[in-house]
Amino acid sequence: MEELAYLQRGEIILYPTDTIWGLGCDATNKEAIKKIIELKQRPKNKSILLLVSDREMLRNYVEEIPKKALELLDEIKEPLTIIYPKAKNLPIEYLSNDETIGIRIPKNEYCQRLIKALSLPLVSTSANISGEKSPTCFNEISEEIKKGVSYIANIPKQESTKHNSIIYIVKENNDYERIR
């Protein structure tokens, strides 16, 4: 995978996820994350979203996986991002103020291969300038974004048809509860 070398050098790639076309980098590399934020012209206080390959990798980046999250991962078949209560092993300056982190385990084969080859989580953010419409197909990505990345995935550039559900899991009365 040619894109792996770019990720390992701290560079940004443009790639299809299981929902939209996204910008990605090694989620543990704060300089690479900074490059994405600058390219997107995104506010620095907006938290990032990660893709991990499986529950085992997920355990490396959150303090605890609430039972409710495990149930949701089993139940929901569409793309699902869960906002977990306490992130760990990530650049703290790119977490939300309450140290939560949004993480998705993609079902997309390309993303799975890429994450497993890297052995680290990927940042996944829409391939657009902050505030603009998220691209559902490659042709909707601006030239500014395309020119700002080091690598563009060489795979079919079809339209995305899946939507991402985002679920916050918060602690109440020493137990976790599902909040939409």
Do you know the CATH topology? DHBP synthase
Mean pLDDT equals: 87
Distance between the termini: 37 Å
How many structural domains? 1
The CATH superfamily turns out to be DHBP synthase
Give an account of the 3D structure.
The longest helix is centred in the first third of the chain and has 11 residues. The chain has a 6-stranded mixed beta sheet with strand order 6-3-5-4-9-10, with helices on one face. A 4-stranded mixed beta sheet has the order 7-2-1-8, with helices on one face. The protein contains 6 helices and 10 strands. The N and C termini lie far apart (37 Å). The model has no long low-confidence stretch (mean pLDDT 87). It is of the alpha/beta class. Helix content is 26%, strand content 22%. It has a single domain, classed as DHBP synthase (Alpha-Beta Complex), CATH 3.90.870.
Secondary-structure map:
Layout: H1 2-8, E1 13-16, E2 21-24, H2 30-40, E3 49-51, H3 55-59, H4 67-75, E4 80-84, E5 101-104, H5 109-118, E6 122-123, E7 125-126, H6 143-147, E8 151-152, E9 165-172, E10 175-179
Summary tags:
180 residues, alpha/beta, DHBP synthase, 22% strand
How would you briefly describe this protein structure?
This protein is an alpha/beta fold.
